[in-house]
Design a protein that fits this description.
By secondary structure, the chain is an alpha+beta fold. It is built from 19 helices and 13 strands. It has three domains: 120 residues, no CATH class; 195 residues, no CATH class; 82 residues. Helix content is 41%, strand content 16%. The strands form three sheets. Strands 3, 4, 8, 9, 11, 12 and 13 form a seven-stranded mixed β-sheet that branches. It has a four-stranded antiparallel β-sheet with strand order 1-2-6-7. Strands 5-10 form a two-stranded parallel sheet. A hairpin with a 2-residue loop joins strand 6 and strand 7. The longest helix is centred in the middle third of the chain and has 18 residues.
Length: 434
C-alpha cells in the first residue's frame, strides 16, 4: 500500500503541474475536435476517453484500450489537480467516480495535493440571492431561484478598464439594445449538478470585451443600420463613433440560446431515464428528428430551431419537468445572467465601445444567437450609472418623457425600433454632473 500511495502521489504531482489549459485535453476529449474542427488526434482522444470518461465516442478504439488500464491511477492523481473542481464530474465522470470510490475504500488519502489555485480562483459559485421579479414573477418559485448557485468558470480574466463619460467629450455615439446575458465564461453547472457539456457565455453587454474586433452582434437587419450610421457619423465628425448599448428587460436573454441550453444541460445530467424519455417525446413533437437530450448533437438542433420552437421547449421543461429534474425558467435565466445586471435598471448603460467605421459587417460573428457582427472594440465599463435617455435629450423632448432616469415601457420599446445617435457634448456632461 505504501508503494502504491507513493506512486500515486508522484503522479498527482505531475498532473497538478500540467498547465491548466493542457489539462483540458485530458478531461475533455471533445476539446480536440472543438479546436481543430476535425479530430486530428484520434489516438490521444481515445486514450483520454479510456482513462477519464469511460466510454468511447470521439477517439480511436486502440487509444481507448491503452487508456483504460490507467484509469484508476489517473483518477486518484486527478483529485489533486483541476479535475477535483466541480467540472470533474461533468467532464471526466469516470475519473471522478473512480477517485471518490477508491479514496472512500481506503479511508481517504492525506497526501493529495490541494486544488489548482488558479482554477479555483476562476470558479464563481455564488447564490443568486435577491433578483428583479421580472426574471420569474412566480412567488412559489422565488426561494428556489434565490438559493440557486450557478457554477461559472471565467475564461476571460483580463480586467475591464473603468471609464467616465467625461473621457469622451466631443465624441459621437450610437446606441442600441443589449440583453443581460453574461460573457467571458462557461456555465459548468447549477447547484450540485455539473453539465456534461458546459454552456459558453457569449453575452450580452460584455460581448465587446470577449469577441475579437467586435463590439456588438445581432441579425443582419439590426447590424446594417449601425454600420451605415457609423460611416455617416465619421464623415461628419472625423471620429469613430462610440457604441453605448442600453440594457433590455430581464427576459431579453431568452432569445439567446444559452438559457435553453442550460436547461437542456441540466436535464441531461439530473433527470432520470424515464423522465428524459418523456421529455424527448415532447420535444420530438417540435423537432421531429430530435436526437435526445443525452446526444451532443441535440444542442446544434436546438440552436437551429426557430425562436418559437426554442421558447416552447423551455416552456415544456419549466411547466412539465421542473419538479422532475429540470431547471425552472427563472433559474435558467439568472444562471446565464451577468450578476451585475440581476437588479439593474432597464435602459441603463454599462459599457462603452468604439465602432470601426468603414469596416464591413462581420458576416460570421461566432455568436450562435446573433450571426452578424459590428467591427469594433470594447473601451471600458462606466464608473457611474446612467439611463440611455439621459444621453438623448432631443428624444426626451420629442417624446415628452417626464423623467429620463425612469422612462416608460413605451419609450424603451421605441428605442428597439432603430439605433439612435448623439454627441457627448460639454453641455450634456455638465447637466449630468461632470
Amino acid at each position: 500500500m505504501d508503494r502504491l500511495v507513493e506512486a500515486l502521489r508522484l503522479l498527482s504531482d505531475k498532473v497538478v503541474n500540467i498547465p491548466t489549459e493542457a489539462q483540458r485535453f485530458l478531461y475533455n476529449p471533445q476539446a480536440f475536435t472543438q479546436m481543430f474542427g476535425v479530430n486530428k488526434l484520434p489516438n490521444e482522444t481515445g486514450f483520454a476517453e479510456g482513462a477519464m470518461v469511460g466510454s468511447r465516442k470521439y477517439g480511436s478504439q486502440a487509444g481507448y484500450e491503452q487508456g483504460e488500464p490507467l484509469a484508476l491511477p489517473i483518477a486518484v492523481a486527478s483529485m489533486g489537480a483541476p479535475f477535483a473542481a466541480p467540472a470533474a464530474k461533468a467532464l471526466a465522470p469516470k475519473a471522478a467516480s473512480m477517485a471518490e470510490d477508491y479514496l472512500a475504500k481506503i479511508g481517504g488519502v492525506q497526501y493529495i495535493a490541494p486544488q489548482n489555485k488558479a482554477l479555483a480562483d476562476a470558479i464563481r459559485k455564488t447564490n443568486i440571492g435577491e433578483f428583479d421579479p421580472r426574471f420569474d414573477p412566480r412567488v412559489l418559485e422565488k426561494q428556489k431561484i434565490s438559493e440557486t448557485v450557478p457554477v461559472v468558470e471565467q475564461t476571460n480574466k483580463t480586467p475591464i478598464p473603468r471609464v467616465s463619460l467625461a473621457d469622451f467629450e466631443g465624441r459621437p455615439f450610437i446606441t442600441s439594445m443589449s440583453d443581460r446575458t453574461a460573457a467571458g465564461g462557461d456555465l459548468l453547472g447549477v447547484n450540485d449538478v455539473m453539465f456534461k457539456r458546459p454552456v459558453h457565455l457569449y453575452g450580452g453587454q460584455d460581448y465587446m470585451f470577449n469577441a475579437p474586433n467586435q463590439v456588438w452582434a445581432s441579425a443582419q437587419q439590426a447590424v446594417s443600420p449601425i454600420t451605415k450610421n457609423a460611416e455617416m457619423l465619421k464623415e461628419i465628425t472625423g471620429q469613430n463613433p462610440l457604441y453605448i448599448p442600453w440594457r433590455m428587460a430581464p427576459t431579453s436573454g431568452d432569445f439567446a440560446h444559452m438559457t435553453g441550453e442550460s436547461m437542456l444541460g441540466y436535464a441531461e445530467a439530473a433527470m432520470s431515464r424515464g423522465d428524459k424519455k418523456q421529455l424527448n417525446t415532447a420535444i420530438k413533437d417540435l423537432i421531429p428528428n430530435w436526437k435526445g437530450v443525452d446526444n451532443a448533437e441535440s444542442i446544434a438542433q436546438y440552436r437551429a430551431a426557430p425562436k418559437v420552437v426554442r421558447d416552447s421547449i423551455m416552456q415544456i421543461m419549466d411547466r412539465d419537468f421542473r419538479n422532475a429534474g429540470s431547471l425552472n425558467i427563472g433559474q435558467a435565466r439568472l444562471s446565464v445572467t451577468d450578476p451585475r445586471q440581476i437588479n439593474a435598471a432597464e435602459g441603463g448603460i454599462q459599457n462603452v465601445g468604439e465602432i470601426f467605421a468603414g469596416q464591413p459587417m462581420i458576416m460570421k460573428s461566432g455568436h450562435p444567437s446573433y450571426p452578424r457582427g459590428v467591427a469594433g472594440q470594447g473601451l471600458g465599463t462606466l464608473e457611474r450609472e446612467h439611463n440611455i435617455f439621459e444621453l438623448l435629450p432631443n428624444v426626451v423632448k420629442e417624446r415628452n418623457i417626464a423623467s429620463p432616469t425612469a422612462p416608460a415601457q413605451t419609450d424603451l420599446r421605441a428605442l428597439q425600433m432603430k439605433p439612435y445617435a448623439g454627441i457627448i457634448t460639454a453641455d450634456l456632461l455638465r447637466k449630468l454632473g461632470y
